[in-house]
Amino acid sequence: MCGIVGYIGGKSASPILLDGLKKLEYRGYDSAGIAVFENNSVEICKTKGRIADLEKKLESEGEFSGCVGIGHTRWATHGAPDDINAHPHKGGNGRITLVHNGIIENYIELKIMLEQKGYKFVSQTDTEVLAHLFDFFYNGDSLEAMSKVMKMVRGSYATAVLIEDRPDEIIAARKDSPLIVGIGENENFLASDIPAVLKYTRDCYLLDDNQIALLTKDTIKLYDINLNEVHKDVYHVTWDVEAAEKGGYDHFMKKEIAEQPKTVRDTLSPRIKDGRVAIDELSLTDEEIKNIGTIHIVACGSAWHVGMAARYIIEKLAQIPCEVDLASEFRYRNPIVRPNDVCIVISQSGETADTLAALREAKSKGAKAVSIVNVVASTIARESDDVIYTMAGPEIAVATTKAFSAQLNVAYLLAIRFAKAKGLIAEQDERKLCEDMLKLPEIIEKLLGMDDFLKGLAKKYVDSENVFFIGRGLDYAISLEGSLKLKEISYIHSEAYAAGELKHGTISLIEEGTPVFAVATQSDLLEKTLGNIKEVKARGAQVIALVGENHNAADEFADDIIRVPEINDILMPSLTVIPLQIFAYYMALGRGCDVDKPRNLAKSVTVE
Ligand code: F6R
Hints:
Layout (H helix, E strand, L loop, with lengths): L2 E6 L4 H12 L6 E8 L2 E8 L2 H11 L6 E7 L14 E3 L4 E9 L2 H10 L10 H11 L4 H11 L2 E9 L6 E6 L4 E4 L4 E4 L11 E4 L4 E5 L4 E5 L4 E2 L4 E2 L15 H7 L1 H9 L3 E2 L2 E2 L8 H5 L4 E5 L1 H18 L3 E5 H4 L11 E6 L5 H12 L3 E6 L5 H5 L2 E4 L12 H20 L5 H22 L2 H11 L4 E6 L2 H17 L2 E6 L16 E6 L5 H13 L3 E7 L11 E5 L7 H19 L18
């Protein structure tokens, strides 16, 4: 979490830094700050709140005019989000200024060591340790100091440093937190993510772990931790800057919901050739697929919900045992992973700390890692054996929508590919499924047309305090997602339950008027779910049934019905999720919430 930016060139740095920070605000938004060289001393302006608050503060305190600076937008981990804990932080007697994204795990022992050497701390952050440590090692050679700092700290970081006696350079480094260098003409840039520099350049270096970047306005030099120079290929960004803009929508979330037909189409079409699945990126051979022992699916949050759905689909079509783990649990439970296992890693950002650690854990035990990732060249993508990119483009709203849909569709493709290798799917069934999948974008487009209806539904339920979601099988996976979407952006308490599990305790929470979304699209489970609908109805629930358009069995028990066009059962999650996203959006809007930037959250969770 947290976003960092840097600029060195001939223009005034502060507007460029502020502009970059706005593009990174999805990474954290509880405080922000910039530091700029002003007449050979580094001046800082920082504040609690968002970039807009920082802009106001700069206006009232006087703008900076210097051409070299760094900036930060924070998601607090150590210390409250206030003016003091906001970055940048100073080290030494002010000769070092730095910003940091990540967590320094051994900061307490380092702090004690530095205090014994006379360093004074003013904030509660782990970052201040980095600043003083850099000062401690700095003897006129910034590279040497950075290398020593990197060898001493444990944890994750992307950091950018200004040194008072080196006004013509910025030095930066990364480990387990993303950092890119934007290559300009007579100017260079640093950022946690590409959208922050896209206005100025399409050419970047993507730093790897334990690499250092030394920037002047005319040069960029890259080094490893032992200060050997490193030569990297330039990464040329091909997508448009507009992809990361709101494009006339009120919110990124709304825009991204609306982009789902395109996202699904772009994700599927290159991988369905002549009516059959062909995933060129997958290097697993038929023989290797036949020999897979267990598939371990690891992910966090919504991506884990995709994993839940993927398990049902893969087990059904390819009959390979699947385990779905929350990455944060998997990494610490010493999972049994064997060399003929495959680990499917799902992540939009490709930077989620727990998911990355789970991937490393699985690989260290000999499993092959196949990742489903959205952000090109992100760390998870780079560390996977095979990566299948979701073609969602930049996803800015904190609550995921289009990346979820794309991930789900990659799961379909993988399941079919595995089933094919095992001879478990006949050619005509594969062709029919592919044909149906290619219809999904058009049907999703139709579902987007339910906007007004869902807006009205949200109006009816906007004052609810608790909302439940129930479903079985694939409907359960979508219930989990519908519930998360609702709670994370509207702050309404919500829970999702496997419909058959509700009566083992949670049903005691159902009372007169409690809204219960019942997702019931799986034909073989319909009767069972219907039974569960009756159970909640009998306890006073207001039932909102989400069903296939030809099913009317739930009609007599439902207070509201959302009908979704019908397609092959395993593809239904791709459709049912859409009205749930739109409903959550309008609920959040109706309650005056900040839809794109919900409280306490950040888009890219690079801390564990
Ligand atoms: C919820 C949401 C999160 C992410 C989770 C994993 O709307 O977006 O739950 O799904 O933080 O993030 P990635 O996919 O970047 O690994």
